[in-house]
Amino acid sequence: MLRFLRGRLAQLVPTLFFVSVIIFLLQQLLPGDPALVMAGEERDPLVIEQIRKQYRLDRPLPVQYLYWVKGVLTGDLGESMRIKQPVADLILEKLPVTLQLASMAFVFALVIGIPAGIVSAVKKDTAWDWGANLFALWGLSTPNFWLGILLIFLFSVTLGWLPASGFVSPAEDLGRSIATTVMPAFVLGNAIAAVLMRHMRAAMLQAMNADYVRTARAKGMRERVVILRHALRNALTPVITLGALEFGTLLSGAVLTEQVFSIPGFGKLIVDAVFNRDYAVVQGVVLVTATTYMLLNLIADVAYVLVNPRLRG
Amino acid sequence: MKAIAACAVLGLAALLGATGATAQTSVLRIGLAEDPDILDPTLARTYVGRIVFASLCDKLFDIDDKLAIVPQLALSHETSADARTVTIKLRSGVKFHDGEPFDAEAAKFSLERHLGMQGSFRRAEISQIDKVEVVDGSTIRIQLKAPFAPLIAQLTDRAGMMVSPKAAKAAGDKFGLKPVCAGPYKFVERVAQDRIVVERFADYWDKGRVHIDRIVYQPIQDSTVRLANLKSGGLDLIERLLATDIGEVKKDAKLKLATGTELGYQGLTINLASGEKGNNPLAKNPKVRQAFDLTFDRDAINQVVFNGVNHPNNQWVSPSNPYYMAKFPTPKRDVARARALLKEAGVATPIALDFMVPNSPESRAVAEVMQSMAAEVGFDLKIRVTEFATSLNEAEKGNFHIYFLAWSGRTDPDGNIFSFASCGAPNNYAKYCDPKVDELLTRARTATTQAARKAAYEGAAAKILPEGGILYLYHRTLLFAHTNRLDGYRVMPDGLIRVTDLRLK
Q1: B70 burial level (CB within 10 Å; 0-12, 13-18, 19+)
Q2: Do B45 and A111 make contact, defined as CB atoms within 8 angstroms?
Q3: Which residue from A96, A225, B389, B414 could staple onto B150, CB 3.0 to 4.6 Å apart?
Q4: Sequential pLDDT tens for chain B (505 residues)
Q5: CA distance B345 to chain A (A)
């Protein structure tokens, strides 16, 4: 097991290296010059030159890259050109926000998606099934920003129950923190619930036709036990994989939803940074997100190995 | 599953508990359209940043609602006969947020910081300053390299903001992370992209006019969501309402609309000599250019895109500005004459033109209306919607025939024209260059009376309007909306939100 872990961790290093090179190159492909953006309306030529110098934009790309890598290896992700704050601080500031939003969204996705998938499989071709499928279709095809704005109009403007946007940290005020994140979490969770529901349904249908389910039924077990203990257990594995991936996506930030609800998370951070050509911020966020993603993958793989001894080489 | 249900119940309970908010301290919540950049008056460059500075950092001078210059941290100013020396008397008894006194030394420090700090965006605004001298504890003398009429107007904005020398020296280029100035409110905290919080400064020199305890600035980019927050009570004041939302604000009894005319303008930059595309019929043939000027109906653009709330115009200051030149009225659209001119010019129509438009719903709409007007005359405007940062680069390289342009405007007319029309100036994307115009624009800088300055501008306008690199279209109306709770709010010509005299009911 330890050897397996060590091997997998060692694989992370070259992957991260490639990721870092790719982020760096992709950014350079973006048209636009950060110095011109930073120079603002006045466009003082002296300032433009000074910005190029200070952030080494006048140096060849490989040199810029090496400086950046050197910083990263010593724990320095650089500083935002736009607000002169260290990138690491910005990331640490946004990480809890994104984590909270992602977790709440995931809870919504599970609570809606899994039961809906089970019900529609068990009650295949009934009104329940059609209802659940209709819901899934709706969840998949409703744009997040539109649903978000509709929710704001209903719950904030018309009913006045929830704040329309913004974010309050749970450490500051737990109640208000949940109040500000419940709508965006629902919007995000809703879309994922639809995906989970479809997969849950397919996996359940397969399991319900399996021999062991027939055997269980033949033994005279109650249908409830057959479904929950025998079919669901087996059907859940692929759904867990999918769930882990979806969670990883949530952690990389939800651009549109964060924009609509003014949630200061990763998505907003990176989008604003791209538009402002704030390279250091983009690089830092992508690097952290990529690392998180890979670690999540690693955890999923380790979990498999623990569950399935055949995979232990 | 049980755990999840428990979480949900817990969340719901917390949610219900949250509705009864306490409110001993009065808090004004202002919704901004963007997240400001660094809050250092020397290094800042955004309009929204200036809105926040209005509560944090007092300036030597300010403007009133008629655009007249009034003292703020200064008491008075006097210009010498040769217009090369300006003596400024400073207010006494003023303190910075860290308790340090504001005096002549501090004023000298702040001005020199604007002039000399690496990366200063203020240097260009006040580069005519040769040196700053301390006369006595409450008087400074500014020596100019050459007479510079816009100086005092520059000191009504960021270049006139005074910072605590002690804090600025200690923080260096990180000063903007925790600015220490002498405004009515002091900095509390900032969470990037979420909020900027300031609180009432107990030792403010004019504290009788400060009535609200805290102000929270919240960047909310989506204008629909900004308005929704105002309607739901999450915000008290929002900037940049969409013209199309005016009706909704008017019919809501809890909301009020506040408007003013911007100091800036929007228009088209016409490439006259920049790169290969500088070689185009608009640049080379005066008749084609004249036809182009007659092509557009500014009133119709205003009606179609902005519900008629903007102010169509053909020059760099609006009709309400003292420097407005009434002898150059806005030309009316004349399709027949424009077509005739194109015929006289002997050019083949349609004339295809690359029209670069920075991406925003409003600029796209304006471009489309102009495109259809131009088609009737014989110009084929090929709209190229371009992301803003990219468009700056393209403009720099001269890769456009026409570039849709927005300028936020400055208090002094010099700030609206000099950098755009003088040879080789930073904002002169068109590469327009006329020594005669340069001379007149410089004369407008050095002349000391308003009449003499205006005469110089009129001389320049006679050449710039028909031949120059910019076709002016309109001035936007600054649209603000606020709740009935907020009292005492007036829109100022620069669009920045003055927080003194505001009250919350």
Answers
A1: exposed
A2: no
A3: B414
A4: 344 444 444 444 444 444 444 447 899 999 999 999 999 999 998 899 999 999 999 999 999 988 999 999 999 999 999 999 999 999 999 999 999 999 999 999 999 999 999 889 999 899 999 999 999 999 999 999 999 999 999 999 999 999 999 999 999 989 999 999 999 999 999 998 899 999 999 999 999 999 999 999 999 988 889 999 999 999 999 999 998 899 999 999 999 999 999 999 999 999 999 999 999 999 999 899 999 999 999 999 999 999 999 999 999 999 889 999 999 999 999 999 999 999 999 998 899 999 999 998 889 999 999 999 999 999 999 999 999 888 988 998 999 999 999 998 999 999 999 999 999 998 999 999 999 999 999 999 999 899 999 999 999 999 999 999 999 999 999 999 999 999 999 999 999 999 999 999 8
A5: 36
Interface contact A200, partner B, CB < 8 A: no
ipTM of the complex: 0.84
Which among A42, A80, A111 is the nearest to B4, CB-wise?
A: A111
Contact A54 B408 (CB under 8 A): no
Count Cβ–Cβ pairs < 8 Å, chain A vs chain B: 163
Residue the block writes with tokens 């927005």: B406
Q: Which residues does residue B32 pair with via DSSP β-bridges, in sequence order?
A: B219
Structure tokens at A279: 């390279």
The reported pTM is 0.88
Cβ atoms of residues B145 and B128 within 8 Å: yes
**Which CA distances in Å does A283 have to A70, A76, A247, A265, A278?**
14, 12, 21, 16, 9
* Closest-CA residue to B297 (of B474, B467, B461, B462): B474
Cβ contacts of B9 within 8 Å, gap of 6 or more = none
Q: Using CB atoms and an 8 Å cut-off, which of residues 227-266 of chain A contact chain B?
A: 259-262, 264
β-bridge partners, B76:
B89
Which domains are assigned to chain B? Answer: 2-56+183-261+478-504 (3.40.190.10), 61-168 (3.90.76.10), 265-475 (3.10.105.10)
> What is the sign of the dihedral through the CA atoms of B413, B393, B366 and B345?
positive
Count CB-CB contacts under 10 A for residue A144: 20
Residues B65 and B492: beta-carbon distance below 8 Å: yes
